[in-house]
Amino acid sequence: MSTQYKNQALEIADFLEELTTLMEQENTLSPEHLFSLDLHALPDCLRDAVRHFLLALEKREQRTVRPQQEMQRSIALQQLTLEIASLAPLQQVLHRICETVRLLLQTDIGYIALYNEEKQTITIRASSGTSPHLIGVEQRLGQGIGGRVVLTKRPHMFTDYPHEARRDPEVEAAIDYEGIISAIAVPLLLGSDVIGVLYAAMRVQREFTTEEIDFLSSLASLASVAIRNAQLYDQSQRLIRVHQQLSEAALQKEVVESVILTLSSLLSCDVCLLDASGQILHAHFRNTQLDAECISAIVRHAKSSIQTVSGQNSLFIEQSNHKIMCSAIISNQVLVGILATVRTAEETYDAIDRIAIERATTLLALAISTQEIQQMNKFYLRTALLYQLLFRGEQEAILGERAKHLGINLWKPCHLIVSMCMTHALPPSQQEIINRMLRSIQLTLDVARFPLSTVDNTCLVAAIPEQENLMARAEEMHALIEASLPQTKVFTVISEPCNKPSDYRNEFFKCKNALSWHERLGRDEPILWAKSFGLAGLLFDVSNMDAIKAFCVETLRPLTLAEHRHAGNLLETLKAYLENESELRATASCLHIHYNTLRYRLERIEQLLQINLNDPGTRQALRLALLLNDTFQFV
What we know:
This protein is of the alpha+beta class. It is 54% helix and 16% strand. The strands form three sheets. Strands 3-2-1-6-5-4 form a six-stranded antiparallel β-sheet, with helices on both faces. Strands 8-7-11-10-9 form a five-stranded antiparallel β-sheet, with helices on both faces. A five-stranded mixed β-sheet has the order 13-14-12-15-16, with helices on both faces.
């Protein structure tokens, strides 16, 4: 072999060795790697072949990497789907979403801003790959990329933020601090509502592809559900914490001070308790002091709330420098105190704040008067006992022992008086108002005459000893409800005697069933007895009245038509025939008619109804139709 060919062979061998080393050291080969190889010593044809070889390797690697990226995205989306189904705090879910964005789109930064509809702003709540300075940055609607995303509900992108024409002065300092150059922002949508904005950002210029934008939008759809679930979880945990801490405060020796301090801690605001004249009884102030104008407004609103029927106990008062939530503490229809929470004008109250205030109001109302607490305790024990008798069905021995402590003998005959407000067409909030009114009426009932009472679902129930004047007691209770709820239709029913604990539940069911039939049939009598509709009213559900009526009319109507009256009263004849067990002579004697006249009428009934009276099934159906018609008067 000539020296020239030997040298070329050695050069090719060196090059191949260098290429092999490069391929071992690098995960992928790109055109940039070609510049690190010395191709000039190779012949032209071999140099071009090597270049083509390296480009082919790069394309092959790209085809290999793409499925891997898609698999990686699929796994991450599955993990995010699991986040949706899990119960996790909101901040943890937000951080997980930001990390997922960085991982799947291979960006420097991922962050989330949530939308505040009341303030018309978006606030950055979580990020990945940034400093803490970015958290809490607020942006107004329509300003910057995020504000435009919320308004348009469409993705937006920029590739050179320092030269962006629509830079937002409110956030540009934070963006510049993080060194963000390019970014894409997509809306977080729940249905048609925007709840925030999801960002993917780079510290270098980058053109995001349509595929990447679509993928981030899909990711945002899953993220929206995960965020809403996390928000609901946070709210439930906060609500549990409110009830637990306030309940613990109510068990302390100094109940009033403990409840006020706990409420102030839970809501992070100033709290005070005023009397009806505006004098501060207890307070926990952190940042503010109430002036005379604020106190006057609180007292005025609290007093007006006593005469106002409202779905909520707490009232919102907005002053120039304060936002105040006050709640009247009422005992026996008398204003005995006012609970007020104070925040700055920039802060707001949410539904859980209102629940916490109302919960604290209830606890304070119970703590103000020891005597009232004792009375209410006995009242609730009596209410609970009747409720358990009506709904729980506990062992008779247990219920009897509880009643004994209250001085009540459950084995002595008692009657139930059930007054029901007909509120089927009213929304739940209005029904709850009626329930509250009924509880107020219940508090006014004389325990000596109404030993047991309870309220359930717009229904006031009282248990009365048998020796009492039942109708007078029913009229008294009915009049109290009508006077308190003049716009509400009320019916009252009196039960049969309850001789043992298990009878209470059965008689209550009979009363409600009788009320349902009474209303469904359009009867106007305000007070009735549970036995008014007899066995039929007990056996048949009022929801089937149309079918029951159709059955009666179809079965019996031909016997009542005018053109058939010349044959005698066929309906009475049929009824007597069935009551006398189909005995012809006994039936004729009962009706005071001749035997042959009876046979003629029965033949006429068979013709009109197209039936055979000798068939037992037919006679049974006729008995049922007559029973229903006697009760409800359909024909």
